[in-house]
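The freezer alarm interrupted the setup, so I double-checked each line after restarting. Inputs confirmed:
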Amino acid sequence: MNFKKTIFSALATLFLVSPVLAELVFPSLSYRTGPYGPNGIPFADGYEDYFTLLNERDGGLGGEPIRVVKCETAYNTEKGVECYESTKGEGSLVYQPLSTGITYQLIPKSAADSIPILSSGYGRTSGRNGKVFKWVFNFPGTYWDAASIATKHAMDMSGGSLEGKKIALVYHNSAYGKEPIRTLEALSEKHKFELSLLPVDHPGQEQKSQWLQIRRERPDYIFMWGWGVMNSVAIQEAANIRFPMENFIGVWWSGSENDVLPAGDAAHGYKSLAMHAPGDNFPVYDDMRKFVIDKGLGAGDGSNVGTVLYSRGMYAAIMATEAAKTAQKIHGVSKITPTMMRDGLENLEMSEEKMAAIGIAGFSPTFKATCENHGGQGSAAIQQWDAKKGTWSFITEYMNSDASVIEPLILADSAQYAAENNIKERCN
Amino acid sequence: MLYREVGEFKTSYAQDSQTFPIRFDRYRYYFVIIVGLLFIPFVINDYWANAVFLPFLIYAIAALGLNILTGYCGQVSLGTGGFMAVGAYASYKLMTAFPDLNIFFVIILSGFVTALVGTLFGLPSLRIKGFYLAVATLAAQFFLIWLFNKVGWFYNYSATGMITSPSRSVGSFFITGSESTPAAKYLFCFLFVFLLAWVARNLTRGKIGRSWMAIRDMDIAAEIIGVNPLIAKLSAFAISSFYVGVAGALFFSVYLGAVEPTEAFSIQKSFIVLFMVIIGGLGSIFGSFAGAAFMVLMPVALKNLLVLQFGWSVDIAAHFEFIIIGGLIIFFLIVEPHGLAQLWNLLKQKLRIWPFPY
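Predicted 3D structure, all chains:
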């Protein structure tokens, strides 16, 4: 009978997850495999390395060691759900799935489980409305901010008016890529430009017909909402039809080294939005190299350190840990719960002094979250790729989005969600 | 010794033609039902429901559906993902258009909608066979997904084209939405699996099932002995699509809660369900369950074994999962080309004559 027991317990452990407590748990729902792996790897490296840095340099957060629970989602929503369920029991403080699809899935689940979601620059845009989405945060900016800022930049380039111009949106045919459409439609009415929509199906290697159409329609500007291999293919295709690169603007997820390097010199001049500065000229990188990478503690092979997506992952971890610090301060305890973490996120302020103290002075826009506003001020800059030097550099200051267009859209979308799910507005 | 018919005397036709004629088999079946109905709901938690039982039960329904079409009637279909999407979108439209309609009927009605669509796409099967039919159903897959992406009416013009299932309950138990409990969701799906498997088993034993199998084995001969290919093939498409539609509706409303067509119902889904049917065993009810269990539970079990027991890093484990599962599929198909169901049958044959094999 003993043998049978062992088999049963072995089988049970196969499916069960044993909870370990007494640390601050940050789950990392990463994807290092699958078609989006090349973009998921640098992000996950940056995300995980920053927690290692805090553990190595400061001994964790407020004296509590940090534990990162990793789970591989492969950018797949079903695996994402499995990862969420298997990690939430470990005391996970905040989820950052780096996938709009998985975020949509987790929004109702996390509200029921009282665990906050931080989807920085992705996820459900109307999650910005804290009155309805108590557990969702998406600072420092949303897709709709991005669409508005890209349009603003295009307007600046064409001398202040877009009237009669044509803008094409090349987008990943998923919830992620469709997000900006509503805003762009509203903007096209306001600024009287013509908008054409060109969906690209997952994973995005096949774009010949879309670019043929672009060649025929000759838009003045192209915006791109792409991810993974779709970005580099699109930039290559744009180069093939000799589209002027400075009129080709990607969202912040279409602006990493991975996206422009495959096209070589042809990518010179390509622009993208940025929610933080490129490059590794920040003191935090010195610490990162000293305490993590040089000691061989890095999550990856170290080849991604300093790239745009690595910085993005690090920035995601910085916002999460700063929110945790805020929560520790508010509640006066170092061992915070997910509910306290939510309070920390809602009261998070990223000021110049705070960023300088972390070693990222001037790295990202300042913002302050409030009960109503979970999305920050919605500012982003434009960066441009220099293929000769192989670097991204800012060509504008941080710009704010057109709130007069976005606010009503956010209110309408969140009101619809509130009505469908019987949610009462908070913060009144 | 355990499994044998010796000493079991059938004294009526009903006894003689029951689904599980051997007592041991019958008790095993009762045991599974009782455990599933009276034990699991009390111990189930979110993880077991959302990572193990719900996907298993829902994929089992889809596999049952495809098995009716491919395994019993011999019509190869690559449109399963598209038909699941029809079920999902039908349930979404029904749920949002008729908020007071009970979720149980929503799921059933979604099945009927899918059956209609399936019959429509089954029409080419009257003229084309085999690989050519597979291509025709592939067209259904791509057309349906394109449709749900393109036409805003299907997703109520939501900003992202994503559909999210509103909260619905049976009595006071929430089945969908954030307030639903794992036990309620599990029991709801279990009920559907039980009913549909029971119906499928009895359909395949009856006249209609026999006409499907006649068509599968040799359609010309079947026609000569009086099987109407129009009725047999289209009924297989309709019933199969009904099952697949119910699976799609449950997949969206109960299991995931929010889906987008391209990712959730891609061609990948069609392949996975087809693999379930092939690995489990074509033309076998048990095979549908075995195949679903293999394709759904194996990756989860492997992941937990490699990551939690052996402490491998998650990406290495994810890559090894592919290798191991691929290897196992090849292994099982070499050892037994007729699937896991045939392995199970062989085991039963061996048990019947054990310990004195001839």
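Quick read of the result. The radius of gyration of chain A is 22 Å.
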